[in-house]
Specification:
single chain, 166 residues, alpha+beta, Alpha-D-Glucose-1,6-Bisphosphate, Chain A, domain 4, seven-stranded antiparallel beta sheet, 7 strands, 23% helix
C-alpha cells in the first residue's frame, strides 16, 4: 500500500433530507449536540462564546465533549471554513482537517466527510486513520438516523464503556 493512501479517508452517507438541513447539522452547538456531541462550545475570534443556536463562522474555535467520556476527554480545534450552504471544514484529531461537503447525487442528499493530512507512521495509522474512521462511521450513521426518524443511537451513560455507540 502506498504511503499516501493512509494520509486521508473519505466516508459518505445518503440521507433523506434537504442539503440545507444536513449542512445545518454541523454548524451550531445545538445542532451538533442533537446527534454528535454531549456538549459543544464555540467561540468567535474575540473569544466570546457563541449562543447554542448561533451559526458558527470561519475562524471560530471549539471545545467538544462526547457522551460516554468524562470532561477530561475534549477535542479542541478551529473552524476552517463554513460557507453557509454546503461545505464545513474544521481541524480535528492532531490538527488534521475534516471537510464536510453536502450535495445531491442520484436524487439523494449525500454527506461526505474527508479527514486528511493524517501522519502516516504506523502508530498514527492505527490510532487515527482506523480509530477516527471507525468513530466517524458511527456518528454519520447516527446523523442519518436522527435526520430520517429522530432515533438517537448514542450511549449516554458515562459508566457504560467500550461500546460502539460512544
Amino acid at each position: 500500500m502506498e504511503k499516501n493512501q493512509w494520509s486521508k479517508f473519505k466516508l459518505r452517507v445518503n440521507v433523506q433530507n434537504e442539503v440545507s438541513t444536513a449542512y445545518k447539522c454541523w454548524t451550531s452547538a445545538e445542532a451538533l449536540e442533537s446527534w454528535f456531541l454531549r456538549k459543544a462550545i464555540f467561540r468567535d475570534a474575540s473569544g466570546k462564546e457563541r449562543a447554542a443556536n448561533e451559526t458558527v463562522q470561519e475562524g471560530d474555535t471549539y471545545e467538544w465533549y462526547w457522551y460516554g467520556y468524562p470532561d477530561s476527554v475534549v477535542e479542541k480545534g478551529t473552524v476552517l471554513k463554513a460557507n453557509g450552504s454546503n461545505m464545513f471544514c474544521f481541524t480535528f484529531s492532531m490538527g488534521c482537517p475534516v471537510t464536510i461537503t453536502v450535495y445531491v447525487e442520484e436524487g439523494e442528499t449525500i454527506i461526505e466527510l474527508v479527514e486528511s493530512d493524517l501522519p502516516t507512521d504506523e502508530t498514527t495509522r492505527l490510532q487515527h486513520f482506523v480509530g477516527d474512521s471507525k468513530g466517524w462511521i458511527f456518528y454519520l450513521t447516527n446523523l442519518k438516523s436522527v435526520l430520517e426518524g429522530g432515533l438517537d443511537l448514542r450511549n449516554k451513560k458515562l459508566n457504560l464503556i467500550n461500546v460502539i455507540t460512544s
